Amino acid sequence: MVALHHYLILSAVIFAIGVIGVLIRRNLIVVLMSIELMLNAVNLTFIAFSRYLGSADGQVSVFFVMAVAAAEAVIGLAIIISVFRHRQSLDPQEMQLLKW
Amino acid sequence: MVSPEPSSVAYDLLRWMPLIPLLASGFNLFFGRALGKQTAGALAAAAVGASFALACYVFWQLPAHGIWRDTVYTWIESGSFQVALSFQVDALTAVMLLIVTGIGFLIHLYSLGYMAHDEDRVRFFVYLNLFIFFMLLLVMGDNLLILFVGWEGVGLCSYLLIGFWHHDHNNTIAGNKAFIVNRIGDFGFILGIFVLVTELGRQGIWTLDFVELQQHVKMLEPATITLITVLLFVGAAGKSAQLPLFVWLPDAMAGPTPVSALIHAATMVTAGVYMTARLHFLFILAPATLALIAVIGAATAFFAATIALTQNDIKKVLAYSTVSQLGYMFLAVGVGAFGTAIFHVFTHAFFKACLFLGSGSVIHALGGEQDMRKMGGLKGFMPVTYWTYLVATLAIAGVPFTAGFFSKDLILWQTFSHGATGLWSIGLITAGMTTFYMFRQLFMVFHGECRVDAHAKAHLHESPAVMTLPLMILAAGSIFSGWLGAPEYLWGSRWEHWLEPVLGVSEVHHDSVSTEMIITLLTLGVVVSGFLLAFVNYRKTGAQTGSQAGGGLFYQISFNKFYVDEFYDLAIVRPFTALASFFARIIDPWVIDGTVNGVATTARRFSNIWRYLQTGNVQHYAAMFLTGALALLAYFLGQL
Amino acid sequence: MAGKDLTPPATQGVARPLENPIQWFHAASSVVSGKWQCRSMDMASVIFYLLATLLVISSLLVVFLRNVVHCAMALVTALLIVAVLFVTLHAPMVGILQVMVYAGAIMVLFLFVIMFLNPVELERRRGVWWGFGTILAVMLACVLTPMFIIDESPANPLAATESFGSPEMLAKSLFNEFVLPFEIASVLLLVAIIGAVVLAKREH
Amino acid sequence: MIVDLAIITVKAALVLFMVLNLAGILGWIERKGSALIQDRIGANRASIFGFAGLGLVNTLIADPLKFLTKEDFIPPAGDKFLHMLAPCMALFPALVTFAVIPFGDVLHLGDRVINLQVAHLNVGILYVFAMGSLGVYGIVIGAWASNNKFSLLGGVRGSAQMISYEIAMGLSVIGVLMIYGTLELQEIVRGQATLIGALLPSWLSFMHPLIGWLPAWGIFLQPLAFLLFFTAAVAETKRIPFDLPEGESELVAGYHVEYSGGKFLMFFAGEFAEIVTVAGLVTTLFFGGWQIPYLLRDGFHFPWGGQWLLPQIAVVFLQVGAFTVKVFFFCWLQILLRWTVPRFRYDQVMRLGWKMLLPLALMNIVVTALWIVAWQ
To answer: CA of C62: which chain A residue's CA is closest?
Structure first.
């Protein structure tokens, strides 16, 4: 039978993969995607807990996470668009005007 | 805080007495100019008149042994320690109420005329009403804290009013002087309050309420009480211009004359006396303090009188005479005759206010001239002022059947019968000097040939009715107010009985009427001699008035006020400023700023190193963030 | 008159459970494990491990593919797999929402932006930094994983009622105890919409 | 247990078969219909012995054969994998949507009670929308994979248009859901068996003789919702008047310029499958699904008294038949629309979606909610 910590470990792995994406990708859109991936890993833990503890709250919080994710994606993409307009690039490592 | 006294009843009319002047003050402050200057003044006077009417009502309604209380709300509440904003009226307060509001009302009327030509008299009336408010707070407060608030408030108003004509730098300096000297006194005062509260609190009684204090002070051991009373007396000395803190009062004459009359003669300066009377239950437990007070009172009386002998400024003379009269009051307090002290406060309020207002009327007529050497022969020009002035002079000199006669002789008799013969003799001589300088002033101002310069003489005139009416009322008061406290061999005193519920059974020894009369006759003799001296020297005032240039050593010392100001300047002010400039030049720039700047520089150095962590690359930040998170997670993992 | 008596016996008949894919999984699992004697793991485990493997692979593709559109498609796949996981966990409602919101809306938005900007050049990669980031993330996984292997983690899910994860259940807790967060979330979305319009608008 | 699985499989296969064939038939009907409208003869080549009436039959075979035998062209600079994947993604959602659409009431076989619906999901309608929202990928990916500026434009247009209209579509249905109080389509259909008379509030009882005899179908309870839903659904199918993604006159053929042969067939079939799905949804939500007025499980019961009892199997056949007829009707309605209405301009499409349908749908929701709060 599948125990709770199977799901937890799975989500941990997915989360870590998302972190890799955030850290190393040099394309803002992909970075944003990786963030979505991390959010999904968290959602997975929520759902697993709500299933194994038999409470609805986990699913409700997933609902809210989705709302936040949608907002975050929309705003992020809007920012990306306006950035891309100013400097024809999506590379986060070229956007360092705020360094020392 | 309901008092255990059976006869203490709630009576919430009281709060209006201080409130009305406050409201008037605030209204004038904001809308006074829109209202028109004359109207603003009238409003202010009306407000004080209203609280005067209230005071009279309360005075008549008040039962002989009653205390009326009006608790507005609980101001401070900390555990069992509770201070309410609440007023009380008993016999003592009732008297003070009459003085403050009554004299205050008259002086407001007078000011309508006196300040008629001043530009911003709206501000003047705002201050004046504010003063009345604080004074009422002082005398009506039923606990030390409210009394202290009033105490500070009147100090503030006095400062504001002394510096009222702030265009002249000297006035502001005088204001500062008064304020600072009062600070010294108030420091002692509040220290006294602290000690009192903490000591009682150690006994488990957390209160500032007078009635409760009166019940509980017995708990304290005498040494503590002495300490407390001495500290409180420092405050009183500051406020009531006793040695060595009297120096501010003469300079306070820089303010407008009505202010001098109201604040610096009739009401505020007597606050110290009121406070001691209010806390008499403390003071009578500390005989040492009482002795100290008596000595200082007598000394002040004598000392100020000697200075007053030679002054040429009409208001300075009155100022020093005020100081010396206050000395009398504290002499009375010192010999434990609180009722008598208050009695003298009462009478003195009348004639000293009358004198000040009279001098004010003279100054007004002369267009601001204050030097008596440039006056003389004004009798003809301003009869009303002259006659009222004469009456007041007789009263302060203590001519029989005037107010001063009764009160001053009562003080002297109390002193004598208290056994303090030395103090009594000093008081006696002072009485003589009082007569001398007062009549000297009278002659120099009103008699002899007129030395007024032509320009001022052109429009020399009697003051308008609004100014002379208060003069007449006060003159009448300075005769009849004393009759309340006549000695036994006359119709006897009703005063003592009135104050008995508050101050306890009076300690006046009426044992030997003969001795009392002998003492009185002795005093009269001194007074008459003083008068004759003045009469001989100053009747037809000529050369002598200008002759302060010569004169003996004693004359010089007296004329220069014993060099007290110079001494203070040398002994206190200069070292203080020197210390201050030392701190300003050495400590502040080098030590303080050095430390602060040093910290800043170090921070900048370090941040110059660390700032290279800020690569501006989001992913680097994320990596650092993740590293930190990893460290934390690893730590918790170790915990598991 | 009608309508009340129309609820058929079918709805609580034996046929009812099998109409629900969740029961379908478990029925199928029992069948299979009954047929082929696989002692080691039952059908549910098989399904879980299958989905887990696919999920990990697609996530890795999201991160390591070089073409943005390929990344997006991989992400869509991952999201759908997560949705299926939700369904197997008795959260059909959330699963459907996952498909609608993520796969249906958010990812389409991503694709829309990708085509709108159409970034032609594939991104250059920088070896050191890639290695470093990867190592960090692997460490993260290594730290997280043991934290989750706890003894008291429930081995078996509780017996779920028919209504568990149903829209009714979700709605009940959403509109009773979580009504304030719900409203706040709606405001958040409104703000996000306006903000996006303002940001992405080409200023004249 | 095995039997249950078998039954489900059979139901799924049956539905799939029906939908795909319907799509094929619609291909022929569209040709003939357009010819009818445009006063042409239309498809008449695929005839057997000159008897074109059988054209229907062999069109079903001829069309796929024709497509499958054509060359499958893949643009060299394109993305081969996604180019192959896109048509599947276009066809798949249209087919699976039918899983939750009930095509009949329960069928009694022996002691077994079979619900005539592939999947009985308590999230039913949401499942429909989820699948519908997946339909975008076919276009977008296809457009991007075939490296062609026209198709890219078509893809961008398509994604924007579909996202916009999904919102209006979803909101327009909510009124219906509130009325019937469930998300599950079978329940919705069963809810439509009652008569309006049973729903009338007391103060409207005087209307009873007028409308009381009407069945409580969505069209009567939510007419506005029907209009909105149908419009949005037609827009979702990307057919004229909403065929901006593939507008021939502007973008040669939009997102499937570069498609040919079997892959194009899949796009083609996907489009017709979508038509069928839309028809099925409209039928289910607004026209009582498999309901026939006054037909209950044991026969007809007329509100004006009198009844006509039928055997259960006959009832089932009547229901399925009714459902099929209704679906056919709405497919035909869409084809009619496609050949009679001119194409919008793109900004008009957007304005219609965002400034007309969306506010109207919201208004409908509010009004319905108020009605429900007031009278139930």
So the answer is: A34
Nearest to B619 among A93, A99, A100 (CB): A93
Q: What residues of chain C lie within 8 A of the CB of A93, using their CB?
A: 126
Chains D and A are touching, with contact defined as 3 or more CB–CB pairs separated by less than 8 Å: no
CATH architecture assigned to A26-92: Orthogonal Bundle (1.10)
Closest CA relative to residue B423, chosen from B537, B327, B526, B340: B327
Phi and psi at D308, nearest 5°, equal: -140, 100
Contact status of C141 with chain B (Cβ, < 8 Å) = no
Neighbours of chain A (3+ CB pairs under 8 A): B, C
Confidence label for A24 from pLDDT (cuts 50, 70 and 90): confident
SS3 assignment for B487-550: CCCCCCECHHHHHHHHHCCCCCCCCCHHHHHHHHHHHHHHHHHHHHHHHHHHCCCCHHHHCCCC
Q: Is the Cβ pair C133, B623 closer than 8 Å? A: yes
> C168 contacts in A (CB within 8 Å)?
none
C33 vs chain A: nearest CA distance in angstroms? Answer: 12
CB-nearest to A23 from B611, B615, B622 is B622
Q: At D295, is the secondary structure helix, strand, or coil?
A: strand
Chain C residues close to A68, C-beta within 8 Å: 185, 188
Residues of A with Cβ-Cβ distance to B615 under 8 angstroms: 96, 99-100
Domain boundaries, chain B: 1-285, 286-559, 567-639
CB B212 within 8 A of CB B268: no
Cβ-based contacts of C141 with chain B (< 8 Å): none
Total domains in chain D come to: 1
Interface contact flag, D8 C21, Cβ < 8 Å: no
pTM here is 0.58
Supply the ipTM of this predicted assembly. 0.74
C-alpha distances (whole Å) from D41 to each of B288, D63, D303 are 135, 18, 47
| Tens-place pLDDT, residues B347-356 | 999 999 999 9
Q: Are D138 and D208 in contact (CB under 8 A)?
A: no
For residue D352, give the nearest of D344, D362, D342 by alpha carbon. Answer: D344
* In a domain? residue D194: yes
D63 is a domain residue = no
| Residues from chain C contacting residue A91 (CB–CB below 8 Å) | 123
Helix-helix angle C68-88:C107-117, to 10 degrees: 180
CATH number for the domain whose boundaries are C18-119: 1.20.120.1200
Q: Which of B619, B630, B640 sits opposite C140 (nearest CB)?
A: B630
Contact of A95 with chain B, judged by CB distance below 8 Å, is answered with yes
Mutate to test the interface with B, among A25, A96, A100 (most CBs of B within 10 A): A100
What contacts B262, CB < 8 A, 6 or more positions away? B103, B104, B107, B128, B131, B268, B353
**pLDDT tens per residue across all 376 residues of chain D:** 677 778 888 888 888 888 888 888 888 788 888 888 888 877 766 666 655 556 566 667 777 788 888 888 888 877 888 888 888 888 888 888 888 888 888 887 777 777 778 877 778 888 888 888 888 888 888 888 888 888 888 888 888 888 889 888 989 999 888 888 888 888 888 888 888 877 777 777 777 777 777 888 888 888 899 999 999 999 888 887 888 777 777 777 778 878 888 888 888 888 888 888 899 999 999 988 888 888 887 888 887 778 888 888 888 888 889 999 999 899 989 988 888 888 888 888 889 988 999 999 999 999 999 988 887 6
Cβ of residue C156 closer than 8 Å to a chain A Cβ: yes
